[in-house]
Amino acid sequence: MVKLAVRNITRNLRRSLLCAFAIAVSAMAIVLLFALIDGMEADMRDNLVKYYTGEIRIRSSGYAEHERYRPLYQSLDYATITAVLDRMDEVAASSGRIEFPLSIYLGERSRPAVGLGLDFEREHAFSNLGTILTDGRLPTGGTNELLLGAALAKSLGTNIGERLTLLASTAAGSTNAMSFTVVGIVTPPIGALSASALYLDLERAQRLLHMEGQVQQIVVRAVSKAPLSPLAARIAADIFTTVGIEVESKTFSQINELFALFLTARLIYYAIALVFFILGSTVIINTTMMVIYERMAEIGMMKAMGMQDGEVRLLFLLEGAFISAVGALVGVLVALLIAYLLGKRGIDFTEAMSGVDMEISSVLYPRTNVRTSIGIYVYGVLIATLATLAPTRRAAKIQVVEALNYV
């Protein structure tokens, strides 16, 4: 039966290739879609953990109520909270941060920006600014030195060694200004950070904002494979039990709604994959129907020689399965090759992402997932094969007398 199915496929190779091509295009489109989505998801997770929230973010319990105004007075005692975290086996690293709005003054020029006060000694476990440093060096602790985002430095026309005056509102609501020297230029992968962020030593930020010993948030990285949600709850409980301070402790996926949407959207992508394969399978359905009418005499001859209805149905089902298997395999392999090449080179969305405040890098790298690709292959073959059931039932119902009339 298998040999007969293969022979029938090769008898009209052009038609068989057309069917396989339709399935291949569907499989290729779906694999590339998932490669892009996987790349975006991994990129957003990486950016959130490095530059925004860590794997877990700790803030004052009252911060969320006034978050829109970035209330610096809703702060945490850095040394106290860090001491608790350092004793927890599940916590691999932690670092304090302060994010605040400010104005930069350079001579007669000024512009708004976002200041990020970082504990550079601990920060290497997160953003590791040295890896995105394109010019100069990192600030020395306890000095009035800072890093500028590359796009921000370009808009200011600022070079290494120039002095900037930063004006910001303090935790008490007053205004304070300090002068800093630009010692480095960094190029974060996120366009919004490159265009608006500057980085200074945490102690200097605390002095500028009158927040000595205080931080706005503490980011946490868990040990490998530690479940984050239970750890976040345990951190809040341990801090309250140990030092009596109520904190808000959340994972990055709980904080960022867009990342959570990515995870939910996978169900939608599977539905889209189903639609793509059904559309591709219509070519097989139509072709099988045409073949049945063209081979009426052959079907009648086979049934006259004793072939049962089930065997006729199996013959056409095998033909559809072989065509879809080859088509889906070619489509998946081509998609994996394209995704691999794009994963090395990246897709530049710099122009499209300009002005968009989103935790996705300007250059995206699709990621191939062997397990997902195998699943898509099996999924495609199964859908395309099942699509031939309707026309094969028609072939099985053909009576010998009716079929022989086509001789």
Structural class category: alpha+beta
Query: Considering DSSP H and I runs of 4 or more, what fraction of the residues is helical?
Result: 40-55%
Elements, N to C (H/E): HHEEHEEHEEHEEHEHEEHEHHHHEHEHHH
N- and C-termini, Cα separation: 23 Å
Number-wise, the strands total 14
Strand order, largest beta sheet: 3-4-9-6-8-7
Oligomer: single chain
What is the CA-based Rg, rounded? 31 Å
Low-pLDDT sequence parts: none
Q: Given the C-alpha coordinates, what overall shape results?
A: elongated
Main sheet specs: 6 strands, mixed, barrel
User: How many structural domains does the protein architecture include?
Assistant: 2
Mean pLDDT: 83
Number of helices: 16
What percent of residues are in strands?
A: 15-25%
Any overview of this molecule?
This protein is of the alpha+beta class. The chain folds into two domains: 2-48 and 258-404, no CATH class; 54-255, no CATH class. The chain has helices at residues 2-11, 13-52, 78-86, 120-123, 150-156, 191-196, 202-209, 228-243, 252-255, 257-294, 296-304, 309-345, 350-353, 370-386, 389-397, 400-404; strands spanning 56-60, 76-77, 91-106, 109-118, 133-136, 145-149, 163-169, 175-186, 197-201, 214-215, 217-222, 247-251, 347-348, 363-364. The protein has a six-stranded mixed barrel. A two-stranded antiparallel sheet has the order 2-10. It is elongated. The protein starts with a helix and ends with a helix. The relative contact order is 0.18.
